[in-house]
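Hi there,

I know you've been waiting on this one. I reran it after we fixed the sequence typo, so this is the corrected version. Both the input and the resulting structure follow.
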Amino acid sequence: MYTIREVSEMFGIPATTLRYYDKEGLLPYVGRKDSGYREFSDHDIQMLRVIECLKKSGMSIKEIRQFADWVQMGDVSLKERLEMFQNRKRAVEQQMEELKKTMDLIDYKCWYYETALAAGTEAVHSQNKSEHDRTPECEILLKQ
């Protein structure tokens, strides 16, 4: 069993966030000591890992609460949980594709400024335009 402080340190999130998750029903199995303090089991830790993953994927607290409700329902909600994760997977793949485009542009700009700095001027790019406008980085820029 873990204290709220231990879990907070483990995940790098404030204890107030853990209390909020508990209050919102995202951690339905969190127990209480006789003193009233929360105590977290390994099952709660696993659920918290899923919650943090879903948050990072862009899921709202309301949607995560729905997932927590499905978990409590047991096997009857397996289909819904699978569909939810399949939808999350598609959403994250789309986010990754967008981040790839962003990285391509950043890579291009790094090359652009490194080349200009080495030449001492941005004019190097207009002088060699025909050579450089065919680079993959420029093709990406032209498509955006």
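Quick highlight: The beta strands are 2-3, 31-32, 38-40.

Best,
R. S.
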